[in-house]
Amino acid sequence: MSRVYNFNPGPATLPLPVLEQAQQELLDYHGLGMSVMEMSHRSKDYEAINNEAEARIKRLAGVGDDYRVLFLQGGASLQFAMVPMNFLHGGKVGNYILTGSWSEKALSEATRLESGPTHVAASSKDEKYMRIPRSDELQLSDNPAYVHITTNNTIAGTQWHTLPEVGDVPLVADASSDILSRPFPADKYALVYAGAQKNLGPAGVTIVLLRESWLQEAATSIPAFLQYSTHAKANSLYNTPPSFAVYMVNLVTKWIEDNGGLSATEERNQQKAQVIYSAIDMSGGFYRGPVAADSRSMVNIVFRLPSEELEKQFLSEATSAGLVGLKGHRSVGGIRASLYNAMSLEGCEALAAFMQDFVQQHG
Ligand SMILES: Cc1ncc(COP(=O)(O)O)c(C=O)c1O
Predict the structure, then answer these.
(1) Cα(143)–Cα(163) distance, rounded to whole angstroms?
(2) What does the pLDDT look like over 188-198, one tens digit per residue?
């Protein structure tokens, strides 16, 4: 067996022990003679998986019964619509902080609705989203329904390191690319959502962490499937769930717990990011990180080489060296290394060594 170092932005690398356990249990889960994929979602055994995954996420997030964890479908993209459909009503205004194309998409979905107006509370678009807005730039509208942020900008390579100060206004976060990659002050959020496919499992399940008291304010005049309360009441079993993906999330979150929880995860992720940022900063200008120093992402590291030709060569040689998935997003080009939870320090060291060799040959 030969596994590569997989720097894909998502779906992304998964912990090897988790894949091995899934492989072991694939044909016969816990002596039941069938795979989780073949099991009824109404069975006690599946319900146990669902409940265990929910409990682990709550434990890792450090929240109690005042929060709900939901396993939904439709990705973060459906959350762009579900958040305003549920919470933009009564003349209130959806406030959005724009930090990249994913936050633009979130805003764009809210503006499609006639239920409530929207407002851009801050934006770094004029600076090509190369930094996170400062808190003194924040201008909330009157009567805000919520403030929406993107905690980590997968394409631009920026990340919020200090949350914006929004007082009593519900804070909503798209945490698609950094959920459970560091401790997060869950109590500051009214709602957090993320697809599992970067830090927590395979594609197919979307995790929503939602404050119970805010749930009471959600709209009930929209289709049942789009109401958070439908899924909360049904314990994420309103209809057939993406059961195998939830099972994998349960295994990955167990792996996070077994490896010291979120503080230890953050420490490892910082160390990994440091290895790559050092390779950029020590390259004498060969590699150029365009992101403002205080906004650098720990999970998606973007950089450029002196020419697009060299970037192509870098990607091709990296692939031959077993370092894959490094192509920047098609909208911005360049190189992007995604260092989600399951990427090892060795993988980052291998990439940094490759980067140093490449400079020596081409710098
Ligand atoms: C920050 C962010 N938000 C939203 C999305 C879209 O997620 P999905 O494909 O799960 O709809 C992505 C996907 O990469 C993302 O990185």
Answers:
(1) 21
(2) 999 999 999 99
